[in-house]
């Protein structure tokens, strides 16, 4: 195509260029508008939040008190509540042909839902009717089960489209009408809604849900809605956590401060409904100061967090500053203070939770990150003005402790200002780069990267092996200051801190300027030992506390040096972990390998080899990885029986009992007991598994959810694929060696042992063990290296972790080490 033709085509902008997206196509086309980032995990977890928020709305309306969130082994998730259930009746004024059920409309149409009618929900987190329909649009499949009016109803969708539609003709006053009701599953004693979905891999970069991230959000909801039971089950690992918090946001503040030294034992707490601009606004707020230097303020509107604040936060801060400043002046606590107290001083060491509930709140976007409702600010100010003033007057000891902290913060701010002024004249703002820094030639920050390397030895190798055009190296000698326990003046006295600040060019703390950052990739490269992990943690603490935007924007990375070097026929292969090592060994093992099913096949020369053997081995390896993962939560012997062809039927109690007996007969283990049971609450049938180990009983179970997962399907498929592959007299051959085998697992293990014996393996413990060429090839060159991007998944969780691991309070850190010691491996001391 000529350049002239290109220009003509590019300017051909007419009616045909206008595209109308129907139904949920807009959500799939631009998911970021509705749920946020689809690459960093925030959008993925937002899917669960949207469904859970609907259940919470049922609780706020007084119709639900139990919510169960289950992470299934196949990567899907289900959310179930005991509310009223989504309406199942057909909506007759529906313009769609045929007339559809209300549930189908709610899941397939944008801006459709019960939140538009104030008769249904007085207070709600959902406003636009796009939440659950977005979840449906962005899921590979979604299954909806509604328990309502003593009947169970069901619908199933694929990428937002109904796949099991049933239609019928009904007679109305206007004649026969075609309708599409939900599928009736029969009678039930349950009440509520069950949404089960699998996120679409075409939309999300990674569909792995984080138990910790979800637990933080569900814990928030339990504090914000006292009396609601929320159960989080992780069938992938066997983790289980129940949230049933009392005390409202006051309990939330006490929970956040549990690992900190607080200045006053009783937090300030207020709960009040105020009429503002004709709108009833309920304000619930709690505050407690601790001895740290950081503010922790989280604001919610109708249970939805606003990370960007809004009118409620503005009202809180302005009123709090006014009330406390008046109290300090009235008590004469600022007589010797040479500078004025400002809001920044009052927020140092403050932990505050603010929750407002308001009908029809207004947000700046669908993600609800900022509240813009004008009526909320005066309501919050009214509550703080009266209630906080009363608290300070009625609790003089605690009021004085708070105010002394604020006065001290004001003095420290003034001292820090003077220190910064001196630093500007000397080191931090001198304009010269640190001598240790080997800078790159590139001046565009977006194309430049800085490696923070542990030790001068590895730093020397990195400098030699780097690409000088865009890779800078900064060796770190020793450990950086623990900034969690340091004041601003102490930070400025630290040589390591000054060196980092100069190298990055953006200063620290209140003077931090992201626009002056010299590198958009900051890569922490340390040894894979205890000291290396400690240095990484100290650096992450520094970036989180003093340069938070670096992490928020995804500029911080952790290098992943290889764990092993494998040498095969004088060729070096670098692998990152044991999983990848096994993959490499299997590939070597299958080369020129042959499998003979039985003695007759061996004599006739009928062999399985090449692609056919690779497919069988791949199926076996996949099931082995599933087995290893599921063995954490389900008895391994039972899983092995499934891979050997055992059938499980849970459709009735009698069929489940027959399955249990068949498993017992196949496994024949006196320490194992399997029985069929039925849950009293939801009447679900399951197999209860009990294994006796040294006098202790380990419990696990198999239920219908597990039988519907991709993991179970893979185990069954592997059993069918490998069935009959190995018989009497079977033999595996590689080169001049051969070995009789009894099963396929034995054949694979022999081949892998043979492959391992013909190579050398070196395990790396430190970067210094690699020369410059090896370090560059494995850890620094973009085409070969592996980097972990550091993300700020949950501010509350991150804040608590840094306070626990790096703070002064030893007890919570000791508990953490004791609780997690058994799960640690590959530590070199």
UniProtKB/TrEMBL annotation:
Its cofactor is Mg(2+); Mn(2+); Ca(2+). Mg(2+) 2 binds at residues 527, 529. The keyword Transmembrane helix does not apply. Residues 650-680 form a coiled coil. It holds the Pfam family HATPase_c. Binds two Mg(2+) per subunit. The magnesium ions form salt bridges with both the protein and the DNA. Can also accept other divalent metal cations, such as Mn(2+) or Ca(2+). This is DNA gyrase subunit B. It is an enzyme of class 5 (isomerase). It catalyses: ATP-dependent breakage, passage and rejoining of double-stranded DNA. It is found in: Cytoplasm. The keyword Metal-binding applies.
